[in-house]
């Protein structure tokens, strides 16, 4: 039975809640649940957020929440809903007192959101690992999604004169250098 009067507010309560519904805390469905609840801070739900979310989902027991998990996952299949959740994830995951998201958190969130669906995600994560970037701002964050949706895996439709953030220009340049190095070593 979910306890609406004393919801799990902090990380320990969230861990217990996840255990009760059979989901790892790092599962993307927990991000969707946080989005539905309008949670403002990762790992914490206020009583108001908890009540709002569970009321909207019509859940008053653990069993009902388990049944809703497939519905929550299905929300990710709608491109507009996914975009909203992706944008929500930025403010949700960054430190509330910061304007930008630190690169470690950004890489974890990008892995969660794009890792399985964006063919260039692994290369992008490698690029971030060796880059000068210590934070990602909201404009960069939003453009990474757009880039992942519109740019071909071979980068053939990337317009260097387009309005992409410098980070993505640098990623494309890095990718082309990586591919040239592979081509050179294969032809030698």
Structural class of the secondary elements?
mainly alpha
Molecular shape: elongated
CATH fold-level label of the largest domain: Recoverin, domain 1
Radius of gyration: 19 Å
Helix count from the secondary structure assignment? 9
* Spatial separation of the terminal alpha carbons: 66 Å
Order of helices and strands: HHHHHEHHEHH
> Superfamily at the CATH H level of the largest domain?
Cullin, PONY binding domain
Unreliable segments of 5+ consecutive residues: 1-6
Strand order of the largest sheet: 1-2
Summed over residues and divided by their number, the pLDDT gives a mean of 90
Number of domains: 2
The largest sheet, given as strand count, sense and whether it forms a barrel, is: 2 strands, antiparallel
Which oligomerization state do the chains in this entry correspond to?
single chain
Please give the number of β-strands: 2
Beta content comes to under 5%
Domain DCUN1: 1-176
Pfam families: Cullin_binding
Protein name: Defective in cullin neddylation protein
GO biological process, one term: protein neddylation
Summary, kept brief:
The protein has 9 helices and 2 strands; from the N terminus they run H-H-H-H-H-E-H-H-E-H-H.
């Amino acid at each position: 039975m979910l306890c609406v009067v004393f919801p799990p507010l902090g990380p320990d309560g969230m861990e217990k809640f996840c255990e009760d519904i059979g989901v790892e805390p790092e599962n993307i469905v927990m991000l969707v649940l946080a989005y539905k609840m309008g949670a403002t801070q990762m790992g914490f739900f206020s009583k108001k957020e908890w009540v709002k979310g569970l009321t909207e989902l019509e859940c008053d027991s653990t069993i009902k929440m388990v049944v809703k998990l497939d519905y929550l996952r299905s929300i990710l299949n709608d491109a507009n809903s996914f975009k909203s959740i992706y944008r929500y994830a930025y403010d949700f995951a960054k430190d509330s007192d910061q304007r930008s998201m630190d690169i470690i958190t950004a890489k974890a969130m990008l892995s969660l959101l794009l890792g399985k669906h964006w063919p260039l995600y692994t290369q992008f994560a490698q690029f971030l690992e060796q880059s000068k970037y210590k934070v990602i701002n909201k404009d960069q964050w939003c453009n990474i999604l757009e880039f992942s949706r519109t740019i071909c895996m071979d980068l053939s439709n990337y317009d260097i004169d387009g309005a992409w953030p410098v980070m993505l220009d640098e990623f494309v340049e890095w990718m082309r250098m990586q591919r040239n190095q592979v081509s050179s070593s294969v032809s030698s």
